[in-house]
Design a protein that fits this description.
About 35% of the residues lie in helices and about 20% in strands. With about 325 residues, the chain is α+β, with helices and mostly antiparallel strands. The protein has 2 domains: about 190 residues, Fructose-1,6-Bisphosphatase, subunit A, domain 1 (Fructose-1,6-Bisphosphatase, Chain A, domain 1, 2-Layer Sandwich); about 120 residues, D-Maltodextrin-Binding Protein, domain 2. The chain binds 2,5-anhydro-1,6-di-O-phosphono-D-mannitol and magnesium ion.
Length: about 325
């Protein structure tokens, strides 16, 4: 039987590779792993809590008001970051403003985390895969002070680490610190993430495309041209690709990581900036995609080169297998 490597063992073994090898980043990743195990448990019980345990009203059996799962996940991660001591502040898709932690220990923390606690909101209530996405940066403000907006608005190139957790048929944590991408599957029997996908590489090309095609007539014409290319016998594969759209970015991204494919969420006439958030969704996945040999752009420029100008900034997002993203970009005017 081959030896199992747990996430914690892996993090410790690789610590020397981290940009600032002081053990702090290792602790942040461990904190994320613990919080995501708790969220995973809550996700697995979602139907029970909403439809069985909470069936008598808005109050659960502990007498607490039922909260939406994405809010519960947000609080779980914030608690982990605030208590850990390495993080001075966070920004999350669930909160209007960033949060600067006020304890003396936290004010001395050197890192900030930006995250989407539970992405795929339309899938939460219908038992379809959802995910957490996170991005870690060194703060730019002085240690010992409160975290600032500038700490949060850093260019994606400055990410120290990024990752996602997929609550799918199993729970997986995938992350990069800029030295390749590794994936871990939660073994519920021992409560540990175990290395299951070492050194993940996104295939250069694939035959699956993911897009909300309901939007096709409100996108720029180049998008329609690309979708027609995907559906044609005259494409690079000589046969139509398969359309696969889960509507949970983490799940669509993860499938493309493994099988090859492209995910497109362009700007539309109703969402002129695009839908997805640069800081919580696009930057972390762009970092992972590039580390795995894939590509992430707005259709025109590289995501990781964009200087953010506000917390909840949205951008068009083209991400996946390198050749497929390049082809899609070539058809835009
Ligand atoms: P959310 O952060 O509100 O969940 O929105 C992000 C999600 C992505 O996971 C998914 O790819 C996309 O929105 C789906 O949007 P749409 O329903 O417009 O196709
Ligand atoms: Mg989201």
């Amino acid at each position: 039987m081959s030896k199992v490597t747990t996430l914690n063992e892996f993090i410790m073994d690789r610590q020397a590779e981290f940009p600032f090898a002081s053990g702090e980043l290792s602790r942040i990743l461990s904190d994320i792993a613990v919080a995501s195990k708790i969220v995973s448990r809550d996700v697995r019980q979602a139907g029970l809590v909403d439809h069985i345990l909470g069936a008598q009203g808005e109050i659960n059996i502990q007498g607490e008001e039922q909260q939406k799962l994405d809010v519960v996940a947000d609080q779980q991660f914030i608690k982990a970051f605030e208590n850990g001591g390495e993080i001075c502040g966070i920004a999350s898709e669930e909160n209007d403003d960033f949060v600067a932690f006020t304890s003396d220990t936290a004010k001395n923390g050197k890192y900030v985390v930006l995250f989407d606690p539970l992405d795929g909101s339309s899938n939460i209530d219908v038992n379809v895969s959802i995910g957490t996405i996170f991005s870690i940066y060194r703060r730019t403000s002085e240690a010992g002070t409160l975290a600032t907006l500038e700490d949060m608005l850093q260019i994606g190139n400055e990410q120290i680490a990024a990752g996602y957790v997929l609550y799918g048929s199993s729970t997986m944590l995938v992350y990069t610190t800029g030295h390749g991408v590794n994936g871990f599957t939660l073994d519920p029997s021992i409560g540990e993430f175990c290395l299951s996908h070492p050194n993940m590489k996104m295939p250069e090309s694939g035959r699956m495309y993911a897009m909300n095609e309901g939007n096709i007539d409100i996108c720029e014409p180049g998008i329609k041209k690309y979708v027609q290319y995907c559906q044609s016998f005259d494409n690079d594969k000589g046969a139509p690709y398969s359309g696969r759209y889960i509507g949970s970015l983490v799940a669509d991204f993860h499938r493309n990581m493994i099988k090859g494919g492209i995910y497109i969420y362009p700007d539309t006439t109703t969402s002129p900036e695009g839908k997805l958030r640069l800081l919580y969704e696009c930057n972390p996945l762009a970092f992972i995609a590039e580390q795995a040999g894939g590509l992430a752009t707005t259709g025109r420029i590289r995501v990781l080169d964009i200087q953010p100008n506000k917390l909840h900034q949205r951008i068009p997002f083209f991400c996946g297998s390198k050749k497929m993203v390049e082809k899609a970009m070539s058809l835009l005017d």
